[in-house]
Every structure is written in structure tokens, then in C-alpha cells.
Amino acid sequence: MNTVLSCSVGKCVHNINGLCSAREINVGGLKANTSSDTQCGTFAEKGLKNAFTNLANMNISGELKQVFAKNSIEMSPKIICNAENCSYNNNRICNAPNVQIKGLRAQMSEQTECETFIQK
Ligand code: SF4
Ligand code: SF4
Question: Does 62 score more than 80 pLDDT?
């Protein structure tokens, strides 16, 4: 099952119109009990340097699929997550059908969070 991820972290280099163009993301929150204890560790601030250094993690085929399949969301990264207290965590892989990463003004990973976190 492919998780559909949406993200409000506008300053992240991977964010394209509220979707995440990374092939894979790492969500952190080892001892998390609430959403605010989690963060997207793959966040990288928009800018020329990060645009190049993060190119290898870009989900190019997903992005192209989205261009061709208008209105259908095909761009979804694999989510590796260490928030073991979350009910959606299955051996450090997220199995939620939809994930929302939040951080409208975030300028670093610590200011982002997984809003979908639900305590076990
Ligand atoms: S903050 Fe994380 S989920 Fe959001 S676009 Fe960046 S890498 Fe993707
Ligand atoms: S929903 Fe849970 S398992 Fe999935 S990324 Fe968020 S915190 Fe991790």
C-alpha cells in the first residue's frame, strides 16, 4: 500500500505544491507521545546548495507520473519512521494510508511534525 503524503512545509526543497518529491523520508520521534515530539528528518531548506545535494533522493518517476496523470497524486515517498509509539508504525515503516507533515514556517527539521501520529 502506498501512503499518500501531504506536507505544508513550504520552505523544504522537496516540497512541490504541498507534495513531497523525495523518494524516501525519515521521520523521527523515538520517544514521541504526541505529534509535536516528531519531525521530518529529511527536511532541507530551499536553496541552490540543497537543490543539488538532495537531487539523488528525488522521486523523479513519481513526479513525472504526476505531470502525466493530472489530478491524481502519484508522488509519495517511502516513509521510514522511528516513532515506535505510533499506531501506524510497523517495524519502522509507516503504514498509514494518509500522512500529513506540518510546519508552515519551519526552517529546520525540529520545527516540523507528523500530524498523523496516534499513540498506541
Ligand atoms: S518536510 Fe519532509 S515531508 Fe515535507 S517536503 Fe520536506 S522532506 Fe518531504
Ligand atoms: S503516522 Fe506515525 S508511523 Fe507514520 S510517519 Fe507519522 S509518526 Fe511515523
Answer: no
